[in-house]
Amino acid sequence: xxxxxxxxxxxxxxxxxQALLNKGDYQISIYDKNNRSGGAAYTGIPSWRFxxxxxxxxxxxxxxxGTQFYYNVEVGKDIPFAKLRxxxxxxxxxxxxxxxxxxxxxxxxxxEAGLTLLYNLNILHQEKDYQEKYQSAxxxxxxxxxxxxxxxxxxxxxxxxxxxxxxxDEMPASKGEVKDAVKEGVVFHYLENIADIVRxxxxxxxGVQADTMVLGEKDESGRASVHVQExxxxxxxxxxxxxxxxxxxxxxxxxEGLKTLSKSEHKTNLEGVFVxxxxxxGPAMIGNAIKDGKACSEEVFEYLSQGH
Length: 308
Ligand SMILES: Cc1cc2nc3c(=O)[nH]c(=O)nc-3n(C[C@H](O)[C@H](O)[C@H](O)COP(=O)(O)OP(=O)(O)OC[C@H]3O[C@@H](n4cnc5c(N)ncnc54)[C@H](O)[C@@H]3O)c2cc1C
Known about the structure:
Layout: E1 3-7, H1 11-23, E2 27-31, H2 40-43, H3 53-64, E3 68-70, H4 81-87, E4 90-93, E5 99-100, E6 111-113, H5 114-122, H6 127-133, E7 136-140, H7 144-154, E8 159-164, H8 175-183, E9 187-190, E10 192-199, E11 205-218, E12 224-228, E13 234-237, E14 240-243, E15 247-248, E16 273-275, H9 278-281, H10 286-305
Parallel strand pairs: 1-2, 1-4, 2-3, 4-16, 6-14, 7-8, 7-14, 8-9
Antiparallel strand pairs: 5-15, 10-11, 11-12, 11-13
Helix pairs in contact: 1-3, 1-10, 5-7, 7-8
């Protein structure tokens, strides 16, 4: 029986593995550094917004078909990537886009990235710690991660503001999320961007220096470009600042040499190694990850059918 290892137990891996087992008999192993399946839908999306019941159903079905799950195993640290390649005919890298962007500022003492905040609240349940340390928070960003951050913080802190550098029309977060956040009491500041994080002598965050922004011509993303309004710098106090300004993919923990060929090809420069989901095309949505995990399985199926 051909052997396949998945690195990551997010939606793309689980639904990809399920699609492969619908096509034939394979021995599949799934490794994840977390303590359960779900990927970003587990560590990032709060449980009051997304149920993992669907993930659990797929996981159960996979286990019934003989799939082995290895949790709390970080490939590249706890087990070498090369070992997985030696022991399997195919390795599918489905590690998501989990490298956070801190926008060049040092994390700590009141400044952190959105995925860290959500992990601390969703998985480590550190609500009390945050309540003891902080009164007021600024969330920086305009996507769904920013919405989950401000809505989660509003559940535990009295004063939560969101700063987004463009206008409401350009905001990538879903309209429903924005509406709910406003209803829950998050104060939105559009056309405001953080220029600097302000700290006291002990290094604790006391607020931000923000610029007012003005919209200009459309840029290469098709959205209006944004520019700093001269002389608009102003201080906004807060003791916690959370940056939710993007994530990226990083394969270096696995193998410095691993490279994808394009944003739509699952095979890579390494023989027998495929990449799928957010790890292939960057942060997107669960539906994309599911679709892509299945599409990757087609390629893996073809590859193994050719006698590899
Ligand atoms: C806060 C937040 C809110 C979101 N909101 C929505 C939403 O409302 N609707 C929507 O459709 N989508 C949403 N998404 C996006 C969605 O969750 C992702 O697009 C989707 O989970 C990607 O699936 P994936 O399988 O490609 O990767 P992921 O779900 O990111 O899974 C990757 C897995 O790989 C594991 N991993 C990484 N490196 C290693 C390693 N070296 N060894 C072992 N395991 C490793 C990780 O622990 C993780 O479990 C949100 C994401 C976040 C972060």
